[in-house]
Amino acid sequence: MPELPEVETIRRELADFVVGKRISRIEVFSAKQFIGAQKDILGAKVRKIWRRAKLLGFSLDNGKTILVHLKLTGQLVFVPSSNGEVIMPRALPFADNKLPNKTTRLIIYFSPSGRLFFNDLRKFGWMKVVASSDLEKETLEYGPEPLDKDFTVAYLRKIFAKTGRAIKVVLMDQKKIAGLGNIYANEALFAARIDPRRSANSLKEKEIACLHQAIRKIIKEAIEEKGTSAADDAYIQANAQPGGYQKKLKVYQREGKPCFRCKGKVVRIKLGGRSAYFCPGCQK
DNA sequence: ATTTATGTTTACAG
DNA sequence: CCTGTAAACATAAA
């Protein structure tokens, strides 16, 4: 699923593809997924693409910003051609190898050339036009970015002390930490050898410091690998290629498989309504 | 054929 | 305020 490393990968690549280009046309096939007025972005030039948590923002030169959230199955794929059907070298997740396909919900056309396909099998994702001056209220709720200076051991100590919720649930709370989803919360807890069921306020100082390091390391590595394209996962890069971090997963989607660290078996349980994968042998 | 699981965020109930 | 649950949707698996 698109979490911080996946959205960041898409951001970097799209910046190369569309910054400096003008929006010439928008084709909306799924009306509820495009919020705002098309005329507010037509003719505008993309100045910058930024990311906050799992939210992507296209800053335009007319005072507007396009926000994009991919939710579970959203994809943003850029192709250089400006019209017609594009045959991709391989089938896209949840679709065939053509663009557009049955999951294409919206297309943005650029001038002088190129198209951005917004595909989304389950239609949870959205694209929204807002005034750039109103951005603060859109991003106000997010906690610190794991790779930013304000993501410190002291900060984690403070938020963990305040709650008895399971540590994994807290890691995935966007108001507490920005950008971690199911994949990286599970992987970080494995790296830190912490049982995902532990209440956040039960973590010892040493464990908090270890978890802090683990989160940063894993997020960095996952960005280097250009994200995780796991089984049944919609995620692909903006060039339609899969990421590489699925090769490095230690527990996510490894239910029943042997732990890489001890003799244990990876198990899967439900925590806060989602799958938690961990090794009871070495995560305490 | 009908039900359930999938995973992110938000709305809502307690 | 905090916490937990259902819903948004499409599809595959049970």
| Approximate strand percentage | 15-25%
Order of helices and strands: HEEEEEEEEEEEHHHHHEE
Mean of residue pLDDT values: 94
Category by helix and strand content? alpha+beta
Measured as a percent range, the helix fraction is 10-25%
Strand order of the largest sheet: 2-11-5-4-3
Your description of this structure?
By secondary structure, the protein is α+β, with helices and mostly antiparallel strands. It has 6 helices and 13 strands. The strands form 4 sheets. It has a 5-stranded mixed beta sheet with strand order 2-11-5-4-3, covered by helices on one side. A 4-stranded antiparallel beta sheet has the order 1-9-10-6, covered by helices on one side. Helix 5 packs across helix 6. It binds a DNA duplex (14 and 14 nucleotides) through loops.
Notable characteristics:
globular, DNA-binding, 5-stranded mixed beta sheet, 6 helices, alpha+beta, 284 residues
Topology:
Elements: H1 4-18, E1 22-28, E2 34-35, E3 46-52, E4 55-60, E5 64-69, E6 74-79, E7 86-87, E8 98-99, E9 104-111, E10 115-120, E11 126-131, H2 135-139, H3 153-161, H4 167-171, H5 182-191, H6 205-224, E12 267-271, E13 274-278
Parallel strand pairs: 2-11
Antiparallel strand pairs: 1-9, 3-4, 4-5, 5-11, 6-10, 7-8, 9-10, 12-13
Helix pairs in contact: 1-6, 5-6
The protein binds a DNA duplex (14 and 14 nucleotides) through loops.
Summarize the structure.
With about 280 residues, the protein is α+β, with helices and mostly antiparallel strands. The chain is built from six helices and 13 strands.
